[in-house]
């Protein structure tokens, strides 16, 4: 426990951007329920992440951990693919730059979504001899300079789509995603419980 | 095309190593000299605007694998104000002017003649910084144009404030689509008092480098 986790927002700060990923779908909610739901959303507070050791993952790199640590990386148009082994409480994070390699002999598997997912999943499976159940969360794929001529590529979206396809091809379930926008994200992935904290420079915190 | 780009690179491909002075190839020396002229003009224009002395480092040309660039700068989480300009057409090029967020505020307050950095509204800061980029990068490019005779006209600048890694990864992705090696042209400038310091980073395309070298060689040879 070398470094303590730095909390970017004051604990009392209200965050109105919570997303309910799972949960009962309310059909035709009466106004009361709706009001109650909105009130809950308004008072929703960013869960306080427990202080864990932070390990930085570099661009086009990945990290696999079975200890309870946080894997940290910053993404703009890149995409962070977080895989969590629910049974063995371990996981890994890959910071990919591009959808797929031009030639199959590329020495950097973690640079591309298509090659990063199978390699990362395999190295998580290798950590434990027992069965594993790997699920995924992805974040990133922003379009940082909207006016500039990156739009011909729309590389952020393409990266995200490639990540989804790679997960599907490897039969890994995608639990949650936070994609797009025009801002960079700081990704904090708790490999123990699989919680993914996405913070922006403005101070918004999202828990996936 | 990919192979061609990689094998054509005459420069050092190792990260964290600047090219040793005695091993600088002629091409690198030419590019460095062109950059030096441009950066000198850019610093002069900044110094005129803030009415203070600006010191500028001799630009270094670094070439390293694209994905190692954030590690090289190691400013992962630093809030950074970035102003980006692009060159259109065949001679594609991305030019980035980077200041730490607080530095940018200070410069904007000097430019807008505000009494303190806290009095500068975000809109004011954005427009001041964009104007600064226009002038600095304009000076840089026109110096290069005068020297080589190549017309270089940039698009309007765009400003963004974010963490260093998030800003730079767009440019690295774009570079890595054509080549595994990023050629980075990096200059640091700082005010003598230490208030304003920043980086001018240029990602020239292969085509632009070749054109510049060709033109400069013609000049050295003494004929068009």
Question: Can you tell me about this structure?
Answer:
The complex is a heterodimer of chains A (208) and B (224). Chain A is of the alpha+beta class and 208 residues long. Chain A has a single domain, classed as 60s Ribosomal Protein L30, Chain: A. Chain A is built from 3 helices and 10 strands. Chain A starts with 30 loop residues before the first helix and ends with a strand. The N terminus of chain A is likely disordered. Chain B has one domain: CheC-like (Chemotaxis protein chec, 3-Layer(aba) Sandwich), CATH 3.40.1550. Helices cover 47% and strands 23% of the residues of chain B. Chain B is built from 7 helices and 7 strands, in the order H-H-E-E-H-E-E-H-H-E-H-E-E-H. In chain B, strands 1, 2, 3, 4, 5, 6 and 7 form a 7-stranded antiparallel beta sheet that branches. Classes of the chains: A alpha+beta (208), B alpha+beta (224). Chains A and B meet through strand 3 of A and helix 3, strand 3, strand 5 and helix 6 of B.
Number of domains of chain B: 1
End-to-end Cα distance of chain B: 29 Å
Based on CA atoms alone, the radius of gyration of chain B comes out at: 17 Å
Largest sheet of chain B: 7 strands, antiparallel
Radius of gyration of chain A: 18 Å
Estimated helix fraction of chain B: 40-55%
């Amino acid at each position: 426990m070398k470094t303590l986790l730095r909390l970017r927002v004051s604990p009392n700060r209200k965050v109105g951007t919570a997303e309910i990923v799972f949960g009962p779908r309310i059909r035709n909610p009466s106004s009361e329920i709706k009001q109650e739901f909105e009130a809950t959303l308004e008072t929703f507070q960013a869960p306080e992440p427990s202080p864990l050791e932070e390990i930085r993952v570099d661009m086009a790199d990945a990290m696999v951990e079975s200890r309870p640590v946080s894997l940290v990386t910053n993404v703009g148009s890149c995409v962070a693919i977080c895989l969590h082994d629910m049974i063995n409480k371990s996981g890994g994070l890959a910071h990919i730059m591009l959808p797929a390699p031009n030639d199959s002999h590329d020495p950097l598997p973690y640079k591309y979504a298509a090659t990063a997912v199978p390699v990362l999943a395999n190295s998580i499976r290798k950590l434990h001899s027992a069965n594993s159940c790997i699920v995924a969360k992805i974040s990133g794929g922003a379009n940082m300079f909207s006016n500039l001529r990156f739009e011909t590529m729309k590389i952020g979206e393409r990266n995200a789509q490639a990540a989804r396809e790679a997960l599907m091809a490897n039969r890994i379930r995608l639990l949650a995603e936070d994609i797009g926008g025009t801002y960079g994200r700081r990704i904090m992935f708790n490999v123990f419980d699989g919680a993914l904290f996405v913070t922006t420079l403005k101070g918004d915190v999202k828990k996936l | 095309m990919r192979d061609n780009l990689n094998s054509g690179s005459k420069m050092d491909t190792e990260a964290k190593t600047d090219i040793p002075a005695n091993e600088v190839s002629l091409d690198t020396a030419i590019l460095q000299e062109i950059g030096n002229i441009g950066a000198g003009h850019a610093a002069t224009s900044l110094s005129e605007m803030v009415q203070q002395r600006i010191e500028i480092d001799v630009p270094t040309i670094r070439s390293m694998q694209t994905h190692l660039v954030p590690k090289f700068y190691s400013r992962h989480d630093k809030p950074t104000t970035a102003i980006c300009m692009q060159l259109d057409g065949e001679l594609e090029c991305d030019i980035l002017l980077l200041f730490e967020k607080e530095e940018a505020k200070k410069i904007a307050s000097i430019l807008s003649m505000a009494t303190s950095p806290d009095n500068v509204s975000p809109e004011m800061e954005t427009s001041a910084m964009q104007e600064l980029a226009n002038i600095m990068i304009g000076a840089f490019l026109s110096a290069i144009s005068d020297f080589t005779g190549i017309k270089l006209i940039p698009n309007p600048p765009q400003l963004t404030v974010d963490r260093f890694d998030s800003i730079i990864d767009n440019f690295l992705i774009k570079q890595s689509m054509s080549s595994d090696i990023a050629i980075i042209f990096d200059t640091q400038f700082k005010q003598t008092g230490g208030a304003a310091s920043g980086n001018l980073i240029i990602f020239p395309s292969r085509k632009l480098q070749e054109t510049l070298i060709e033109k400069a060689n013609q000049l050295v040879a003494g004929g068009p």
